[in-house]
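User: I'm curious whether this sequence folds into something compact or stays loose and floppy. Could you predict its structure so I can see for myself?
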Amino acid sequence: MKAIWNGAIGFGLVNIPIKMYSATESSNLDLDMLDKNDQSNIHYKRVNEKTGKEVPWENIVKGYKMNDEYIVLEDEDFEAASPEKSKMLSIEQFVKEEEIESVYFETPYYLEPQKNGENAYALLLKALKKTGMVGVGTFVMRTKENLCVIKPYKDIILLNKIRFPEDIRSYDELKIPKKTVKEGELKMAIALIEQTSEKFKPEQYVDSYKEDLLKIIEQKAKGKKPKISAPEAKSEKTIDLMSQLKASLEKSKKKVS
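Assistant: Here's the prediction. I'll summarize afterward.
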């Protein structure tokens, strides 16, 4: 794996030099964009909107529009904005992970100790495990400040990027009707949840859509026409909620037995 960030965790007065690695990778099929007529690859070009000519990477700069005029930013401008945060991930506070709403969580990264940071890394990992706490802090990567949590994951320290409150959209515009829940339906729903509850096993979930799509690709490669099974038609007849819950419970019982 290739490190995507080098820096240090600021843990009180202790600095822990670390490298950051992406903890996830895309499992999507690598599909290319093609011209329908001759199956030639489609390429995207960086084009000057005035001249229509392609612009090489070395001539592309970043700018911020202010009063109808662009202010061009150089690499040193980004570094000058907050030089310490581009190399230091400072833990500002420690909290219980359950205090952070799931809507805030974003991308996970693995953290590896660099030379002379092994002891402090092991200490922080052990302390986080013992207290059940996670550290909250900020760092700068690729010209953007990131809010994150530092937490134990098995035998390493994991960094999880989380969103700033300003990044969470309000749901005030959504039309959520206020409905009175019937006591009998609530008991039935709780029974269904309890009956189908078990310990989370991530390995039991697979990307079945990708597998099905690969089968179709293999069939087409052999010159066969893929078989398309139509989805099961749903009845237009309205069924009351209690009947649906009862049917769900019966179905769940059969699976358990």
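Summary: The helical segments are 75-81, 118-131, 183-195, 208-221, 241-256. The chain has five helices and nine strands.
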